[in-house]
Amino acid sequence: MKYQVDSPKADEFICHSEIVDTLAYASEQVKDLSLVQAIIDKAALGKGLSHREAAVLLECRDPEITVRIYAIAREIKQRIYGNRIVMFAPLYLSNYCINGCVYCPYHAKNKTIPRKRLSQEEIAREVIALQDMGHKRLALEAGEHPTQSPIDYILESIRTIYSIKHKNGAIRRVNVNIAATTVENYRKLHEAGIGTYILFQETYHRANYEALHPTGPKSDYAYHTEAMDRAMEGGIDDVGLGVLFGLNTYKYDFVGMLMHAEHLEARFGVGPHTVSVPRICPADGVDTSQFSNAIDDDTFAHIVAVLRIALPYAGMIVSTRESQRSRERVLELGVSQISGGSRTSVGGYTQQEDPEHSSAQFELSDTRTLDEIVAWLMKLGYIPSFCTACYREGRTGDRFMALAKSGQIANICAANALMTLHEYLEDYASDETRSYAPELIKQELRYIPSERIRQRTLDNIKAIKGGKRDFRF
């Protein structure tokens, strides 16, 4: 196959020979220190890198150069995202699945995991529990099953989630992570008002992909890999990419994910809204020792730093798969979104499960409550953000990217982050968590460039303290 970045065919925009050639190029060119320095100089401009340029920096593990790479990643993260960290939680609707994915406990042959599907009444109870924590943004998750989680069930569930208003709580945006589907179904999701459509590729190596997905609809590599194109055609212009590091060699999947981002930019004029970087971890019926490509913490940090440099305007997500220590390390290198208080079992926010018969998709490494995570972030100097304004104001796709690239995002997002944090502090935070806020927020206000927006933010914060809610720019 010939590499064609704007082709609609998976084997042409994720071209195996191009990835192999890129990895060989990186292995050889990393020895050319003048070239490496030129790439680093380009990276420092904050405009992104090609997949070949990024592959060279990924290959480079020289300690002095790594220090420079990490410094640039920090500078880019601070310039675009400031101290904001967006908060979300997953909501698992169903773990019925007809796929045979060997790394996932939902696989059809697993007879030990309890199978569950939430009714709309149970979804409402889960949503109330999440609202009572303080969450405003959810990532909806479901296994692939034609009768247990068809598109109509997903759409009904979205309507239920948006309809629940408990005390001062509301889920203001539902992102959706469900199986690859048709343009028509993506159009229905768009019309239902979803935020970002998220789909992990797992691995871009076709042969390994097919071995890891031996049965079920997900075994169709091309259909799965081309899903984001269909989502864009269906009107969804915020999409989220991801691979599961450890299923395949990390360098191959790193390059594949960047090529996918370049493809979306070339074909639709806008790259991914987010990229996720999960690592393989223990789960029911899954022995992680079988995956020889698992990566260590230093490699994981290096991947995050180079991704931040290569895709400066894409949000980067790390879930509770990662430990507190690991998340703390990568927050400064590029991560801009994290989950908190998460449960990866169906009904996990309202139902106690027998650990011996868990319906969880994977084990959590960070089991702290949302309040504990909010306090931790503030102690580190971050502003936990519960903002969903851009979705609701139509700032998605190329409109969001224009704001990010122009620097105007600093005005809008900083203000919205502070206002939504104040909602959290007023309605849900513990006294200890509130105690970390005043000085941090006072300092953060100084980073809003516009005097007008800064003053309106202060006025709105006073109104929030007086009982009003849901201000946004």
Entry keywords:
alpha/beta; two-stranded antiparallel sheet; 21 helices
* Low-pLDDT regions: none
Overall average residue pLDDT: 93
Secondary structure tally: strands:
11
Radius of gyration over all CA atoms, rounded:
21 Å
Helix content: 40-55%
Explain this structure to me?
There is one protein chain. The protein is α/β, with parallel strands linked by helices. It contains 21 helices and eleven strands. It has helices at 10-13, 16-29, 33-43, 51-59, 63-81, 120-133, 151-163, 183-191, 206-212, 221-225, 227-233, 250-268, 297-310, 324-331, 370-379, 389-392, 397-406, 409-427, 431-435, 437-445, 451-465; strands spanning 84-94, 137-142, 165-166, 169-170, 173-177, 197-198, 239-242, 274-276, 315-318, 337-339, 383-385. The strands form two sheets. Strands 1, 2, 5, 6, 7, 8, 9, 10 and 11 form a nine-stranded parallel sheet that branches. Strands 3-4 form a two-stranded antiparallel sheet. Helix 2 packs across helix 4 (51-59) and helix 4 runs antiparallel to helix 12. The longest helix has 19 residues, at 63-81.
